[in-house]
What does this fold into?
Amino acid sequence: MQFTKRDLNKTLFVKPEVLEKSRRWWLVDAKGKTLWRLAVEIAKRLIGKHKAAYSDHWDAGDFVVVVNADKIKVTWKKLDQKVYYRHSGYKGNLKEFTLRWMLQNRPEKVIWLAVRKMLPKNKLRDRRMKRLKIFVGSEHKFNHLPLEKLEIND
It folds into this structure.
């Protein structure tokens, strides 16, 4: 089969209305899951890489609901060696927080930051992060939606 220049330049275009209707809702139970493997799978769903009509310039990802965010696990000595930083912009106002402190006080922020760092650094990242819903306990407010369970193997 011979390819012409016209054949090679064909691109699949899906209308934004079709992409919005095809968004699915995934439920992820983070209990006992490794943080970084969990973040990779969530990022894939938010980007939409699991879909056949994936393209990097479209926002074709799905919604992800994470429950039991406080029950994740980490490997090795990351609890004390992994450090998160926050800076307000003023001199001398750099704050440091260990992973252990973050898991005790703000466990949903740990997953949020891990997933955010896995996403491409472009204009679509904030829009994709809005579709991530994280809850500390096993209760969530999206019971009325058809949630599909996402199994993540460790």
